[in-house]
Design a protein that fits this description.
This protein has about 450 residues and is of the alpha/beta class. The chain folds into three domains: about 220 residues, 3-Layer(bba) Sandwich (FAD/NAD(P)-binding domain); about 120 residues, D-Amino Acid Oxidase, Chain A, domain 2, CATH 3.30.9; about 50 residues, no CATH class. The strands form four sheets. A nine-stranded mixed β-sheet has the order 3-5-4-12-13-14-11-16-15. Strands 6-2-1-10-17 form a five-stranded parallel β-sheet. A three-stranded antiparallel β-sheet has the order 7-8-9, with no helix packed on it. A hairpin with a 5-residue loop joins strand 4 and strand 5. The structure holds flavin-adenine dinucleotide (FAD) and 2-acetamido-2-deoxy-beta-D-glucopyranose (NAG) (2 copies). The site of flavin-adenine dinucleotide has 32 residues, from helix 1, strand 3, strand 16 and helix 10. Belongs to the paxM FAD-dependent monooxygenase family.
């Protein structure tokens, strides 16, 4: 059933812990289908918070289909830049290797802008949002689930949604996942935002900044790549500078093992400029003009951890359930898909009182796991082909990428875990798989079985 305001036969009360992208999307979906929803969020406020880790987000059709179902079509396009080409550039001289055409448009926006539209919609549909708050403990038994908030309040909902991100404390509250943490993969991404006025100074950088029109560049080099685009509404050019050989940070002058937090402010620009000194003039100029960026060490959770507690009263979504590397721009999209599928399943249970939370939990895991695992495998393959060193393989990639027959092995990445076999990149088939997914349709089409 569509996520439009409905009168449920049975009304669930839900506490969503973590009001990030996934948590707010779930809150909206659940509320639209008639449940009562409270969000518990650590951050002090949503509007007017500056910084936001300088993060831009890639949103493809699979994600914005969900956002439309949540009633966000109009605000989403107010903040996003759209395009249907990806311009792939060569690192050493910035020449465009290929302009890859995509059937479905992609959208790019700033993370804080996506949070803002989700927050405003959640308030509009009647979600209770408690900011500057977290929980002390969760008691999860066959009889009930109880959430003890830091402020002293106790909540006893039917369902707890754990949407508290990569370091999830909800995950740690479930006995079967309490020891699971996200471990650094050795990859690192530096997030740089350059003002439009600075982009205009030089012809090479001015050429990268074209407001709103096909804003996406993708510069590939040995062991590294840069994805970059305009964020027109903020008059910014956003770069995600991805180093697949970051390791312990030796190339950036770190003598010891890097034990900085996953996300931190980075100011050693001379080290960054040195490491990226073999990239083209436009990139070098932008790094010269920048004195601070966000450093994001990439971590991932294991593949096979459970996403629901044994009582089915706690369900994990988004990064809390599955953090993976960002090299297909799909992490937030998976959180939004999780949220949409869960909302639709709960909506069905609220219309059919014979369905239990255990039925919902089984359906949620069996719909979401194969999808998330496949996207993760694609991410591994991406990192392998984006970072090819100059040579025969790289020349072959540059000739064939975007063509129908193009498929890649994940060579050199298998030892890192998940990825085995081959994956296709930028073919119609791969795009259809990633972007043709309709979360509402999947959840509505699920056939509930009754055997244990
Ligand atoms: C460099 C980089 C680039 C990326 N680019 C893209 C991209 O282009 N496209 C894309 O789709 N994805 C991208 N991702 C992935 C994306 O950022 C994440 O997958 C997404 O943010 C996950 O959403 P979430 O809601 O699960 O978690 P988060 O967005 O992390 O939200 C968690 C929320 O929970 C709150 N919280 C945490 N702990 C508690 C607590 N104890 N109590 C209460 N609240 C708590 C936090 O304050 C936060 O608001 C990228 C990731 C990285 C690292
Ligand atoms: C958030 O809570 C802390 C105490 O836990 C308090 O000192 C601070 O003022 C609160 N911030 C806001 C914006 O309410
Ligand atoms: C955005 O997603 C598409 C499809 O997954 C992918 O081809 C593209 O590389 C992604 N862009 C970024 C910036 O990650």
């Amino acid at each position: 059933m569509p996520l439009t305001p409905t009168e449920p036969k049975k009304r669930f009360s839900v506490v969503v812990i973590g009001g990030g992208i996934g948590g707010l999307a779930a809150a909206i979906g659940l509320r639209l289908s008639g449940q009562t929803v409270t969000v518990i969020e650590l951050r002090e406020k949503y509007l007017g918070q500056t910084g936001g880790a300088r993060q831009g987000l890639n949103q493809t059709a699979n994600s914005y289909t969900c956002l439309y179902a949540l009633g966000l079509e109009e605000p989403f396009h107010k903040f996003a830049d759209n395009g249907d080409h990806i311009k792939m550039r060569r690192y050493s001289d910035g020449t465009v290797i290929k302009a890859i055409h995509k059937k479905k448009r992609y959208s790019k926006l700033h993370r804080e802008d996506l949070l803002r539209i989700l927050y405003e919609r959640a308030v509009e549909v009647g979600v209770e949002i408690i900011t500057n708050e977290t929980f002390e403990s969760i008691e999860d038994t066959q009889q009930h689930v109880r959430v003890q908030l830091q402020s002293g309040r106790t909540l006893q909902p039917d369902l707890v949604v754990g949407a508290d991100g990569v370091h999830s404390k909800v995950r740690k509250s479930i006995p079967s996942t309490k020891d699971i943490t996200a471990s650094p993969t050795g990859d690192c991404v530096f997030l740089v935002n350059v003002p439009k006025s600075v982009m205009a100074k030089q012809p090479s950088t001015a050429a990268l900044y074209k407001s709103g029109e096909d804003p996406f560049h993708f510069t590939v080099g040995p062991g590294r790549c840069i994805v970059s685009w305009t964020i027109t509404i903020r008059e910014l050019y956003h770069l995600q500078i991805c180093d697949f050989q970051y390791g312990d940070g030796k190339a950036y002058g770190l003598a010891e093992k890097d034990d900085s937090p996953l996300v931190s402010t980075f100011t050693d620009m001379p080290a960054l400029r040195k490491r990226w000194g073999d990239f083209d003039e436009a990139i070098r100029t932008l790094l010269d003009e920048t004195d601070v960026c966000t450093k994001w060490r990439i971590a991932e959770t294991p593949l096979d951890m459970p996403w629901c507690s044994p009582t089915s009263r706690i369900v994990l979504i988004g990064d809390a359930a599955h953090t993976f590397e960002p090299f297909a721009g799909q992490g937030a999209s998976m959180a939004i898909e999780d949220a949409t599928v869960l909302s639709c399943l709960i909506a069905r249970a609220s219309q059919d009182p014979s369905l239990t939370l255990a039925d919902v939990a089984t359906a949620y895991e069996s719909l979401r796991r194969p999808r998330v695992d496949a996207i993760r495998a694609m991410v591994k393959a991406n990192a392998a082909i984006f970072g090819l060193a100059d040579g025969e393989k790289q020349a072959e990639r540059d000739r064939n990428i975007g063509g129908e027959g193009f498929s890649v092995g994940g060579e050199g990445r298998e030892e890192k875990g998940a990825y085995q076999g081959t994956a296709k990149w930028s073919t119609e088939e791969a795009y259809e798989f990633t972007e043709g997914y309709d979360a509402v349709k999947e959840a509505d089409g699920y056939v509930f079985g009754r055997e244990g």
